[in-house]
Amino acid sequence: MATNGKIRETALNTYIKEVGGAVAAQLEACTRCGICAEACHFYLATGKPEYTPIWKVELVKRLYEQRFTPLGRLKVALGLAKPVSEAELREWVEYDYHACTMCQRCSLVCPMGIQIGDLIHMARSGLQAAGLTPEDLQQALDNQLEIGSPLGVDDDTFDERMEWIQEDWEVDLPIDKPGAEALLVFSSIEIMKFPDNIAAIAKILDAGGIRWTMSREAREATNFGLYAGSDELETFIAQRVIGPAKRMGVKRVIVSECGHAYDSLRFRIASLMGETLPFEIVHITEVIGELLDSGRIKIKPGVLDEKVTFHDACKIQRRGGNFDQPRQVLKQLAGDQFVEMTPNREEAFCCGGGGGVIATKAADTVRRAAFTVKIDQVQKTGAKKVAMTCSNCRLQFLDCVDHFALDWEVLGIAQLVADNLVK
Amino acid sequence: MNWTDAMHFVRGPLFSAALLFFIFGMLYRLVTVIALGWKRDHAPAKSSKVVGGVLNVLRSAIIFPFVPRIREAANRNPITYLAGGIFHVGLFVVVMLGAAHVLAWESVLGFRWPTLPLPIIDFFAAISIIALIVLFYNRLSNPVLRLLTRTPDYINLLVVFLPFLTGFFMTHRLLLPYERIYTIHVLTVDILLIWIPLSRISHFMFYFITKPRHGARFAQRGAKP
After folding, report:
1. Is residue A389 in a domain?
2. Quick one: average pLDDT of A51-63?
3. What strand order describes the sheet that includes A252-255?
4. A141 and A128 both lie in a single domain
5. Is the per-residue pLDDT at A2 higher than 80?
6. Which residues of A touch B145 (CB under 8 A)?
7. Are B223 and A37 an interchain contact pair (Cβ–Cβ within 8 Å)?
8. CB contact under 8 A, A109 and B74
9. b/e map of A109-131 (b: 16 or more CB within 10 Å)?
10. CB within 8 Å: A49 and B146
11. Does one domain contain both A372 and A340?
12. Are strands A308-310 and A385-388 parallel, antiparallel or unpaired?
């Protein structure tokens, strides 16, 4: 972490290091049209112009212009350029860490197709390197680096929780079982807060006849390196899953209902490591879809007799493409009682708690404000049950259901499937 | 220098210099961006990235880039969408299909293509001028745009506005004798050509990197761009 005075230099050097062709082309393409604001629930809920997605990368943009463009360099030489200051970097912590989940909804409305979420991730990287990461997010990252889990799940806690789940839910949780074809990885949110989810997924995999195992070493799929914005730490943390998976020789790594773990492991880590992985990485929702399609599992049709709607998670649906499998589940379980929110699928609003926002206490107010967009959407469907495929979304929903005293039931797709398996 | 000399200068040496500056300036911008390096993507794609990228550009080119991907977002800021869209269509029609402009293209490229009748061109020029004024007003009045807009963004609008305005005056024989307004019109075009590589008006070139990339990334992840 940078000491005082070094903060500015460290942040700016990180940005300079991270500028590649893709970043430059995107920064060059922006015409400052401001349309991205209209896609962002943080802006829509607060009306704060500073929450305009592209404004969240303003410092990166300014630095790029001053270092990489001829006119920018001329302005610097003539003393006409406004340098990025430490005070500004501190100001941008709020915009980049509190008011963005990197859900990429803005990239869909950008006429130039700029991946603003990726650029905000880059904006975080400089702040992280300079030691400006919000305190509690940094603490969680430190926990993950030192103990192996942001929630402090050490070896003993892990063993205890697993034993407890096996007994109370009457499931078998194989750990480090040789010869498994699939490695199942969880987030500590599930281990600590949604143990029923672990039991549910175990039941589904067993019912589907999959030879699977968990791993003591690869017991944490969440990646706070990704949240903080450090590619280096993200890679380091992900190695704890990739390494054991390689050694076990599994064909697949199944990621449980954790959006960020899926995003990082499925779409980012191979490129960060610079290699093609010898196994595929799938989300549990994809596995459920395969098992239902092949008839290896069956669920009871029509058991949900109340209206139920589905929340598309940013990392699993918009950024992960798993739109149809959860809908297939809900259509079977609820029939006509399954109702869509508007907008949905790629266009859906994210819950507002992702990207480490829910782990940042200082972001509580803006996080809950962003959720009001979701409240509006759900209320328009008339449903009191909301299902989703991401435990991070679920945490945000549960917190906001409590905060806003909503009478909703928050459901996980895996749990719905497990509870309604045809034996 | 009288107006005739000035006319010969702006459409002769100055135009050639401006055009060369434009071409080499844009090439420089493109090469410096590409030379910054591109990381290889090792994650397996859920659907073809090439198809996704190409389709995304075609969709934008054929259907008109300003058809909003998320309608409810566009409805919250219709001015930017409509005025921005109308301006770009107007720009294309006037510059590429106006008879006088096709002659100018012919003098540079050596070949020509069919044109549209003057009243149609005139209509598109007029709505483009109105759109630019609306976009200027939008930058002043919309709180998000007020925050985002910097001096060069206003210069961009002005530098694009002037050729439209002088062209419109010239067509309608307004304000100044033909030779003078023609000279001023070509001068504003020369200025525009020089300003493009120095400014964000160059976004149209980077569009052909960022738009297919967006399509490829969403396709890779199994989502519609």
Report:
1. yes
2. 97
3. A212-213, A182-185, A252-255, A280-283
4. no
5. no
6. 32-34
7. no
8. yes
9. bbbbbbbbbbbbbbbbbbbbbbe
10. yes
11. yes
12. parallel
How much is the pLDDT for B175? Answer: 83
Q: Is B151 exposed, middle or buried (0-12, 13-18, 19+ CB in 10 A)?
A: exposed
Shared domain check, A143 and A125:
no
Contact, A354 vs A314, CB < 8 A?
yes
Quick one: pLDDT at residue B1?
78
CATH at A288? 3.40.50
pLDDT of residue A126: 97
Please report residues of A whose CB lies closer than 8 A to that of B42.
Answer: 270-271, 273-277
- Which amino acid belongs to residue A36? C
B93 in Cβ contact with B167 (< 8 Å): no
Mean pLDDT value across chain A: 95
Neighbouring CB atoms inside 10 A of A307's CB total 15
A324: chain B residues, CB-CB within 8 Å: none
Q: Return the H-helix or E-strand segment holding B60.
A: helix B49-63
A303 found inside a domain: no
Whether B143 and A49 lie within 8 Å, measured CB to CB: yes
Within a domain: A300: no
Burial A172-182 (b: 16+ CB within 10 A, else e): ebbeeeeebeb
Q: Within an 8 Å CB–CB cutoff, is residue A45 touching chain B?
A: no
From A42-46, A152-156, A251-255, A368-372, the region with the lowest mean pLDDT: A152-156
Which CATH number fits the domain that encloses residue A126?
Answer: 1.10.1060
Domain check: are A142 and A104 in the same one? no
Domain boundary among A82, A113, A132: A132
Q: What is the pLDDT of residues A255-281, one digit of tens each?
A: 999 999 999 999 999 999 999 999 999
In chain A, whose CA is at the least distance from the CA of B204?
Answer: A29
Q: Is residue A299 part of a domain?
A: no
Question: Mutating which of A103, A105, A108 best tests the B interface, going by the most B Cβ atoms within 10 A?
Answer: A108
State the residue range of the domain holding A367. 308-419
Which pLDDT score, from 0 to 100, does residue B66 have?
Answer: 62
Residues 57-76, chain A, touching B (beta carbon < 8 A):
68-71
Is the per-residue pLDDT at A325 higher than 70?
yes
What pLDDT is stored for residue A60 in this prediction?
97
A contact test, residue of B63, B76, B132, B221 with most A CBs within 10 A: B221
Q: A141 and A289 in one domain?
A: yes
| Residue A116: closest C-alpha in chain B | B214
Residue B221 has pLDDT above 90, yes or no: yes
- A window 92-131, beta carbon within 8 A of B: 105, 107-115
Q: How many domains does chain A have?
A: 3
Q: Percent of chain A having pLDDT more than 70? A: 99
For the segment B71-76, the average pLDDT, to the nearest whole number, is: 88
